[in-house]
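Reviewer 2 asked us to include a model.

Predict the structure of this chain.
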Amino acid sequence: MNKLTYSSMSKHAILAALGILTFIPFIMLLLISFKDAQQFASHRWTLTFPLHLENYTEAWHQIRRFILNSFIISGVTVVGVIIVSCLAAYALARMRFFFKEQIYFLIISLLMIPSVLTLVPLFGIVIKLHILNNWLGLWGPYIAGGQVFCIFVLRSFFSSLSEEMFEAARMDGAGEAKVLISIVAPLSKPIIGTLAMLNILSTWNEYIWPIMVMNSIELQPIPVGLLYFTQKQTDYGSLFAGYAISSVPLVLLFALASKQFIEGLTSGSVKM
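Predicted model (structure tokens):
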């Protein structure tokens, strides 16, 4: 073997080792989730028998309502973000109106503001609107904050589309809404899917804002629900089983939509 072959093999070995290290926490999560208290105390880092499947039953009964809450919160949020972002990005990309560029730069300037700086003003707005301890207190700020990056990406993508295509559609009598729904949206499916996945990830894992806005534990999403479960549960097997169950929706989402996700990232990198 020549020097180049050894160099390539060493690089692959390093990448393989890093890949294995990445999966070690997930493997340990699964191992601990099947243990009872005695097995956890005596053989914490190894596989033990019998496997206690009842840990998953107990965890499911404790966190299922929080998972349903997260589905509702994330689902409404991502639909709202995508609809508002597409409408705003299309207007900023394909229509002409006064101060268009200034409005666009004002919108994307919000990307430079750390989200932690907006917590107190947002909380004040939620109190004044009387939507405290209400899912509207989550949906509103999530949709308002999530659309900024989406507008930035979609506006760049919409601007790169051929003008002749829009002119042909208008000559056929299509209005702006028809053009957006029938032409622009189908062409933008990969990038819209990617933005939807990123929005779901950020919303699903949000922790601080639900604690601030929601007083009722029955309305909390899964991150806060896991904290509540941690405070109640002393059995680490059931606790880790709850962590494993809560990760399943996101793992399935990425597994089913990974191809579209990669296509959207590639499309966005080429068009922007």
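The longest helix spans residues 54-94. Confidence is low (pLDDT under 50) at residues 268-272. We have added this to the supplementary material.
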